[in-house]
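re: ur question from yesterday

yeah so i grabbed the chain u mentioned. its 282 aa long if i counted rite. heres the sequnce exactly as i have it in my notes:
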Amino acid sequence: MIKFEHSIFALPFALTGALLAISDGGMSWGEVWGKLGLIVVAMVGARSAGMTFNRIVDAAIDARNPRTRERHIPAGLLSKRFAWVFLVAAVGVFVAAAWALNPLCLMLSPVALLIVMGYSLTKRFTSMSHLVLGFALGIAPAAAWIAIRGALDVRILWLTAAVTFWTAGFDIIYSCQDVDFDKTEKLFSLPKALGVGGALWVSRLLHAVMVGCLVMLWKEFALGALGAAGIAAIAGLLVYEHRLVRKDDLSRVNAAFFTVNGYVSVLFFVFWAADVALGHWG
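ran it thru and got these structure tokens back, copy pasting raw so excuse formatting
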């Protein structure tokens, strides 16, 4: 029901936020490794809760969509009862990890759950649902910073903005596949509102803004050449992603959505982790 490998989208950005927080100093390595482990547990719990809630509330819609009717609940492979039990378990794992991290994480855990689960309802009333999904992933690096430091530093919000715009951009590309279905079901999306061509231009704009946010983040943390190279690599990958899809040819959407964006998040983490390591521990 939930593809664990899809966590690759947000997790590297969360870990980057954690590394930037760690680079501020004042922590032992024992504290660092323990907190990083809890951050991963919290990320998996939150994503599992969000995706399970999505599968439950969208089960009837998924059953009518040829692209999604083979998902586990509409296909009868899993029951809704099982999904609800799994959802409660995932929420429990997330809240427990937040409690173990620090009081502010525990206090904010209901807010995080509201965001990651609430996204699933937004396509019923707004074409901006892509940005809501983006924000659901975008809070991950800020949450990781809070997990490490116990407080929020506004500088990390540049990374929240970058992940928000990046995710919204690639979700628009992915939703182009369902534009006709959205019209039939009276669901909301930018491809439905603007047409596939117009939506793809919005996606390009959002990805350009994402790169700008990363540049601002790079400046705020005074990173070096490796960080700049990471931004350049991401910009190149995003250009390639948009070359894979056209309004009259969506046959390579999956390659653009899954493969390219997986590389974006992983390469960003590799370049920035190396830069932070060299700058602060080299």
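noticed a couple things. The CA atoms of residues 138 and 160 lie 4 Å apart. also The mean pLDDT is 93.
anyway ttyl
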